[in-house]
Amino acid sequence: MSKGPGLFSDIGKKAKDLLTRDYSCDQKFTVATYSVNGLALASTAVKRGGLSTGDVATQFKYNNALVDIKVDTESNVSTTITFAEILPSTKTIASFKLPDYNSGKLEVQYFHEHATVTSAVALNQSPIIDLSATIGTPTFAFGAESGYEAKSGSFTKYNAGFSVTQPDSSFSMILADKGDTLKASYVHHLDQIKRSAGVADITRRFSLNENTFTVGGSYAVDPQTVIKAKLNNHGKLGALLQHEFKPKSLLTVSGEFDTKSLEKNPKFGLSLALKP
């Protein structure tokens, strides 16, 4: 793919990943294997809360094709198939969920040096068409997205945003939910390999006159260990410890606490990923 401004969904992604990625209150176990002919297989089991059963997911990757299959606690089967470079500089994604036969969706992404365009359509009797476009460079990008429902003839969403990315920092702002939500985030990297960073994120809901402010960050204790933490103005505190006990194999312990209601039991999660 050409290096360019990225997808509209990439705007604000650095801050979102720092504040949400690997934080979990579930038990998760992943095993990955690779064959000599280039086939990669990864299987994941997730147990949520006090449930006796959980989700099971399997991922296959071979050359430019990627297949994700997930079975949830209600025996719904979700499948996503991704093909890269069927046409030059494109990625095609098909997804569907069984037994919901109206859940099919087809998405095509086109990447250019100074622009990206995404088009997605739901494969049902009342299709929703999603369009997004981003223009700019890897340093500055501006984008917008919209969703249109053919049956009602109305827009389901329209959002716009921009991002400014420097070698040691990133700032983004998004106007979402049909103009009802304004999100702004800032990430500052503390080292050249970008394993230690600070992040601040603020979300304003105009209709509710509500602000949510979150600060957090990550710190590399050593080359194999990272700790992360986050806290918002509602008193939600999250923290995690992630250790790479061998190359690409990770053990993650995370927790969530309500500092304004200490009588509530804290939540903990454990994730183990084994990769060759």
From TrEMBL:
InterPro entries: Porin_dom_sf, Porin_Euk, Porin_Euk/Tom40. GO terms for molecular function: porin activity; voltage-gated monoatomic anion channel activity. Keywords: Ion transport, Membrane, Porin, Transmembrane, Transmembrane beta strand, Transport. It is found in: Membrane. Pfam families: Porin_3. One of its GO terms (cellular component) is pore complex. The keyword Lipoprotein does not apply. Belongs to the eukaryotic mitochondrial porin (TC 1.B.8.1) family. PANTHER family: MITOCHONDRIAL OUTER MEMBRANE PROTEIN PORIN 5-RELATED (PTHR11743:SF23), VOLTAGE-DEPENDENT ANION-SELECTIVE CHANNEL (PTHR11743). This is Mitochondrial outer membrane protein porin 2-like.
